[in-house]
Amino acid sequence: MTTTLPTAGRTEILPKHLILSERYQARKKPGQQPLAELAESIAAQGGLLQNLVVVKSKKRGQYEVVAGGRRWAAIQLLMTDGRWPEDRPVPVLIVPNTQGLEASLAENTLREDMHPADEFEAFAGLIDQGSTIEDVAARFGKQANYVRGRMKLAHVAPELLQAYRDDEMSLSVLMAFAITDDQDRQRELWARMDRWDRKNTQPSHIRQGLMDEAWTADRALAKYVGLDAYEAAGGRVTQDLFADGGDLRSIYLHDPDILKAVATDKMQTDLTRLGDGWAWIETALSFDEAGWAGYSSKYGRVYAEPRELTKGEAAQVKALTKRIDVLDHDMDVLAEADEDCGDAWDQMNEELETLKDQRAAITDAAKVWPDEAKKIAGVGVYIDHSGELNTTYGLIRPEDRRAVQAAAQTAAGEGGDAVALRTSLPAPTTRPAYSERLIRQLTANKVGAVAADLAGKPAIALAVLVAQLAQETLGPGWARGFGLGVSLRGEALDTHAPDYADSKAAKVMSDMRQHWLDILPTDQGQVTSDALAWALAQDQQTLVELLAFCIAGTVQGVQHQDTDQATPLDVLAATAGTDIVQWWEPTRPSFLQHVSKGMIAQVVTEGAGADAALPLAAMKKGAAVDAAALALAGKHWVPEPMRIKSPDPALEA
Predict the structure, then answer these.
(1) CA end-to-end distance (rounded Å), the chain
(2) CB burial class (10 A; 0-12, 13-18, 19+) of residue 546?
(3) 433 CB-near residues (< 8 Å, 6+ apart)
(4) Tens-digit pLDDT profile for residues 320-341
């Protein structure tokens, strides 16, 4: 009996009669949806919602799938695990072979993908019809959190969803609006944003704007208290559904007053471990609220006096110091070793920090707080930025100044075994002739008058500038200058490069320094305040030359990691036309002893040729360093970190 196969139209065909077409495939790159997710969706829907498109195959009794290849592959996956029986037919649409490629092309190019916003609302519709989030996730092969997030987006104000459809905002900004369910607040914030803000505002700014006065959980108080204690006290929390669960900035606390109250109670409990004996304890919830913190001019201090270490303590400090010195040396050796010793260096560094802390703890414990001081002075405690308690002992309040002075005099008069009080007290305050506000107002006008007058006298302005910079560069560190808000900031090159002092550049700068010291008015080798009168008497060329020397000492650009990008130092070097090879060459101390033997061979190959590098392989490192220095001499080679990179990459092409 001969079976008549269908030739056109919609029908159903058993899986064994279907194969994937190779002749009529417009899509050469696989689709993005994972095959397993597609299979789960087909299984959840009970079958295909859209027919496969097939043509009759050259092989008798077979049909080639020309459109819907991924759906066919998903069905095969379901057949493998028994969820699509082999005798269950597949719905198909048979088209003539002459239309096979056209059908495949139409399937893959003319079909318009669903907009993500439509997916949000479709999920929400299924939930409204009675499906659970887990049901929807299973039917479409998604994670429950994915569906939960899309549900959240579906409830953003309709105007904002339409703006997302119209490409007026990004998905990340839409997610930020979903931090709250209050659509009126969403609309209000959106209305306040101009077109540029709507496309470019950081999502974090959106979230903070919608959260009003809410604090994020990365606040110091929240770290100190802990979210559990805050919520147990009735504090409300909003978690950003789209953020990383470990990101404290994505957790919003709506009740700062509750957080402050819980922190205050916790501090009172924690203060019991500070010990007794002090006259008072003052607390603050932050650095800004701690009147004694930083460089406060309000509180004085009384200091503990170091006592002599016991034999046991001295022995511990000596042993710790010896081990610390050994670790410092060994870490330097590892840093310059040929092989990768990063893990070993990290372990040594961890041990080094632990030992330093142990040594500091011993010396800190070996201090004596005089009883007389503790009867007057107190302790200040505040919560620092990391959520830890910062404690300062020996604070002196303004009203206790006289009592401390009297106690100090008494201790000094007793002599003998009495412990002297070492204190620092701020200057007493007296009623000023003018208020602070008025002084600022008057002197601000004074500054403006002098500035306006100086702006019309360029020759004097240049002389004052050069004199002030010269005094800062060549004078005493305490020099006050001549009234300009200009100062120099350089880098201590010798702390980064031990070989710098012997370099050509250092010698040139030293000679220039001595030249100017010989010309300028000095006292014991330092420029004096007479520099201003001297500068006013000089010609412009002399002033400009001295200015160049002073400015040169401010050149900056020491890096801690190499980079392919041009830095401001490269821009300056390119502007000045600096040729590094005229100032530096690779020698043993400047470069070669600090790199591995393999790197030395690579450097010599690049700078002097492969023939010069060939003998290095058989040498020990010390000999290889000397041979490399000889091979590179005069070759004008410099390592990558020293090369001047063009600010315009096109110039380097």
Answers:
(1) 75
(2) buried
(3) none
(4) 999 999 998 888 887 776 666 7
E runs forming strands in 346-495: 367-368, 378-383, 389-396, 422-424
CA-closest candidate to residue 221, choices 269, 253, 179, 268: 253
CA-CA distance, 252 to 222, in Å (whole number)? Answer: 10
The pLDDT confidence band at residue 514, using thresholds 50, 70 and 90, is very high
Report the 10 Å Cβ neighbour count for 94: 19
Read off the pLDDT of residues 398-427 as tens digits, 9 standing for 90 and up. 888 888 777 777 766 555 444 566 777 776
- Residue type at 86? E
Given a cut of 60, whether residue 396 has pLDDT beyond it is: yes
Task: For residues 211 and 252, give the distance between their C-alpha atoms in angstroms, rounded to a whole number.
Answer: 7
Please tell me what DSSP assigns to residue 156.
S
Judging by DSSP bridges, how do beta strands 367-368 and 90-94 pair with one another? unpaired
Region 206-216 average pLDDT: 75
Q: φ, ψ for residue 238 (rounded to 5)?
A: -120, 125
In this structure, what token pair is assigned to residue 153? 């987006």
Strand partners, 252: 216, 238
Residue type, 610: A
State the Cα angle at 412 between 408 and 415, rounded to 5°: 145
Q: Which amino acid is at 244?
A: D
Other CB atoms within a 10 A radius of the CB of residue 363 amount to 12
Pairing, β 52-56 against β 237-239: unpaired
State mean pLDDT over 97-102: 68
Question: Which tens digits make up the pLDDT trace of 428-445?
Answer: 666 677 777 877 887 788
Contact (Cβ atoms closer than 8 angstroms) between residue 301 and residue 423 = yes
Cβ contacts of 468 within 8 Å, gap of 6 or more: 481, 482, 483, 484, 486, 532
Identity of residue 171:
L
The position carrying tokens 């003052």 is 282
Q: In the chain, what is the greatest distance between 2 CA atoms, to the nearest angstrom? A: 129
Angle at 214 between CA 187 and CA 225, to 5 degrees: 160
Per-residue pLDDT averaged across 216-237, rounded? 88
